[in-house]
Design brief:
CATH architecture of the largest domain: 3-Layer(aba) Sandwich
Strand order of the largest sheet: 2-1-3-4-5
Shape: elongated
Helix content: 40-55%
Number of helices: 11
CATH topology of the largest domain: Rossmann fold
Radius of gyration: 18 Å
């Protein structure tokens, strides 16, 4: 029996997925959640074989940190849209086969098949997302640098970013300086453009 933790922010979607999985004789949904902050505790308490996580799940840390924490205790299968930045925010290539990714556009049968394959030790990664994962391996920016750069791209100043991420102003400036060095951008705007064109953010 495959014990499953199902975490999805959408109640209707989560309920529908749970109903579909309940029809399978070898699958049991042992816990459900709508928030990423509950996942780690549920994994410890319910001891699932696999955690199926919505990529858009709200979480107070980062999806990378959550996936790395959970994948140390059970297999993780992320559900993400093909247009998402999942493979740039979660190092899927490095963490496979403990972490897999399946597209939200996939039929339920693909999710069920993916879960069974991961239990057998196979790597599960959507084709289009796989190409993004290969590109992500070459990403020179750290998770924090990408986070700072995305906020800068959204128009936030270094002081605004520092307040939002609970960092010092100097730390944010250091992150931005390293980003410019790594991208070769002469200005912050140029660094953002290079990172976007390279698929790094």
């Amino acid at each position: 029996m495959i014990r499953v933790l199902l975490a999805h922010q959408g109640g209707l979607v989560r309920g529908a997925l749970s109903s579909v999985l309940a029809q399978e004789e070898d699958i049991e949904v042992v816990a459900e959640s709508a928030h990423g902050n509950e996942v780690s505790e549920l994994v410890d308490r319910e001891r699932p074989d696999i955690a199926v996580l919505d990529f858009d799940l709200p979480v107070s840390t980062t999806m990378t940190e959550l996936c790395e924490q959970v994948s140390a205790r059970c297999i993780v299968l992320i559900i993400a849209e093909r247009s998402s930045a999942v493979c740039r925010r979660v190092d899927v290539a490095r963490l496979a086969p403990r972490i897999g990714v399946i597209a939200k556009e996939s039929p339920p049968e693909a999710l069920i098949d993916g879960m069974r394959r991961m239990i057998l030790g196979e790597t599960v990664l959507d084709g289009e997302l796989a190409r993004a994962a290969l590109a992500a391996v070459q990403n020179p920016l750290t998770e924090r640098e990408r986070e700072v750069l995305r906020l800068a791209d959204a128009g936030l100043t270094a002081r605004d970013i520092a307040l939002k991420l609970f960092l010092s102003h100097g730390t944010v400036r250091n992150h931005l300086s390293r980003v410019m060095t790594k991208t070769g951008g002469r200005t912050r705007i140029e660094a953002i453009r290079i990172a976007q064109d390279s698929g790094w953010i």
